[in-house]
Amino acid sequence: MAGSSAKLRRLGAELRRLREAAERTQSELAEVLGRSHVSIVNWEHGKTRIGKSDLHVLLKELGASDDVREELEKLRLAGRSKGWWSVYKLPDWLRPLVSFESDASQITAFEPILIPGLLQTEDYSRAIHLAGPYTTPREVLEKRLELRKGRQRRLVGEHPLELHVVIAESALRLEVGGPAIMADQLWHLVRLASAPNIRIQVLPYRVGAHPAVCGNFAVLHFSDPKLDPPLGYADDAVGGHVIDDPSEVEVLLNMFADVRALALTEPESVDFIATVMDEYRARKT
Predict the structure, then answer these.
(1) Cβ neighbours, 10 Å, residue 160
(2) Domain 85-284: which topology?
């Protein structure tokens, strides 16, 4: 789903809904438009942009009302517009995440090794990128840090993103950048945990093996789940990828529910983070 965006995905969902309501097949519409079957599939999945003339013919064929045609043309144009992140020249694997993240109403995430990106301090984030420069070359590091600040602005404002994260104890113990940077990072978590839209839980070592031991993941939720069903996202060694298969997203949702139930409560988690923070502070002096 590397070429997709939130607006294109929504437009595709509407095209699919109209086609199914009209009881037409993708192959039939492909023949009418003189396009390949793959083109129709990609439009409906938001993977490629549909042109104005193709959209006009398609909506006429499906019997869409003038109001629907107008709204979907607006959505098509919105899908062409560049997001605030376009100036950062993001790699293909990161662009979809930032786009969907900007439209999401809630994110649930599990992190076994690192502090979640939306909760990282600048010093912590810089230290991570310097330690592993293969996905973020040093010449783009400062731009990537600016991007992260932009993404973190979703957590504040009139309609802030709701964020619920489960962080493994190992992420708190992994020393990134030295004890001073870690102490500041954990104090940042303690402060953020008091925000009404941010929930932080810690999965302690004593839990042992757990359902999400395979790695990190996030699930992005949207305000209208019927139109915009949840999406998953997972990092790998050379980037990351969006997960849009409903059955796979359901697995991620179940995994998050399991680790959330195994984790410390939110008040217990804040106390635990503060304890680890004090350990780092003691090493600073």
Answers:
(1) 15
(2) Endonuclease; Chain A (3.30.870)
**Segment 141-150, tens digit of pLDDT:** 999 999 999 9
Task: Give whichever of 40-54, 181-195, 211-225 has the largest mean pLDDT.
Answer: 181-195
Hey, what's the torsion of the CAs at 115, 139, 145, 270, to 10 degrees?
Answer: 20
Overall residue count recorded for the chain in this entry: 285
- Indicate the CATH number of 6-81 among 3.40.1440.60, 1.20.1290.10, 1.10.3720.10, 1.10.260.40: 1.10.260.40
- What is the token pair recorded at 17? 């809904």
| φ, ψ at 111 (rounded to 5°) | -130, 115
Q: Are strands 106-111 and 162-168 parallel, antiparallel or unpaired?
A: parallel
Alpha-carbon distance values, 175 to 34, 172, 178 (Å): 58, 8, 6
